[in-house]
Amino acid sequence: MGIRETDAAWDVVSDGLWQVLVATVALAATAYAAADWRSTLRALGRFVSSRPGALMITAPGLLLVYSRLLGMGVIWEGLLDERYLRVFKNAVEETTELLSYVLICAAGMTYAGRTMKPRYPRPELLPVRNYLEST
Fold this sequence. Notes:
It is a single chain. The protein is built from eight helices and no strands. Helix 5 packs antiparallel against helix 7 (86-115). By secondary structure, it is mainly α. It is 80% helix and 0% strand. It has helices at 2-5, 7-13, 17-35, 37-48, 51-70, 73-80, 86-115, 127-134.
């Protein structure tokens, strides 16, 4: 999605480059997941059943469906009639997309934070704490 959102920059390099990049990322991700598909399905099941997983399912739906529906010019033209200005429609659509991306990021960071092993399992092993106690 990040590659697609920056397609204007990729088109400066080469017209349609973003499509090649998206296809490459999609193929690499699919090959990686298929290499150990049983483990992939177990991990997917754990993720989807978690609270961040539920948010991760909801946020792309908001991004791909709701923001597109909200961005339809026909709706805005019907609502605002002759007072319709495209800049307001764009602002609402883009802020909805931004909210969706923030929720996707929050879901990913929350899940990663919950599943990562702590570097220092016990507070007494923290180097700063040991240093402060010894001085």
